[in-house]
Amino acid sequence: MSDFVGRVGEVEAGDARVRVRYAETDQMGVVYHANYLVWFEVGRVEKIRSLGLNYKGMEAEGLMIAVAEATARYKAPARYDDEILVRTRVSGLRGAIVRFSYVVERMPDGMVLCTGETVHVVVGRDMQKRRLPEVYAEVFRRAMEEDRAGSPAVGTEELR
User: Which of 59, 67, 83, 102 could be bridged to 107 by S-S, CB 3.0 to 4.6 A?
Assistant: First the structure.
């Protein structure tokens, strides 16, 4: 899994801002761990939107990207009313497999709270694996190249 950090306080295209709600915290007053996966989804949808694609439109075409694997590494707690930034990158692409990497930061100090990754399989409505259509694959490849060029700490790569 690759970690990456943007410039502190700067929101880039595809980043998602989220305010921690009370309902997302546990009895210890920190964000319950599973909520980070929800925030990964928020970031992923925003990233796809920033690339000029529309996930809802993909679904209307009968394409979905099902989560096959999710990992998260917790580094510091988020608490009620914190404003967080979810930075998302397309970090891998091969056939029917798309990988996204995430960094969740507290704003405005840029403290990294969590890093993670999700691996997705492109499927049709019948839940059978499908190759990602070239129109989408090209957009994702271009995003990987742009992230690689603009963020030295981003570790995007073609999947082997």
Answer: 83
